[in-house]
Amino acid sequence: xxxxxxxxxxxxxxxxxxxxxxxxxxxxxxxxxxxxxxxxxxxxxxxxxxxxxxxxxxxxxxxxxxxxxxxxxxxxxxxxxxxxxxxxxxxxxxxxxxxxxxxxxxxxxxxxxxxxxxxxxxxxxxxxxxxxxxxxxxxxxxxxxxxxxxx
Length: 151
Known about the structure:
Layout lengths: L1 E4 L5 H17 L10 H4 L4 E7 L5 E9 L4 E8 L8 H16 L3 E6 L4 H9 L3 E3 L12 E6 L3
Parallel strand pairs: 4-5
Antiparallel strand pairs: 1-2, 2-3, 3-4, 5-7, 6-7
């Protein structure tokens, strides 16, 4: 398994993001899915990580949006067949390192209550629940989390 920063603008990655979109829309109505589109993921202040299996196939991804106030985790997804191998933890570690290098004081994320496995992963990784941040509205289908980063 390999995890590294790559461009999201690759056919295999685009297909994985389409799988993520379909998964999210099976859990939540469109107005409660706060996803970044492909052009947003290619911006200079966004770092996009890709997880590949031993054969080089894309099996996971995640991004961090770097701002002076926080690094926001977005587009976190590992294909069901590749779960349980530590890829999500590896993706989070890589993104956290990028946020630290950028000088972000904390990491934030928005997830949903229908994803208890993801929420458990974030809690094990040191995230705690918080209120909405940035431009997010109050939404009963959103769970907001943050993790301070030591300087």
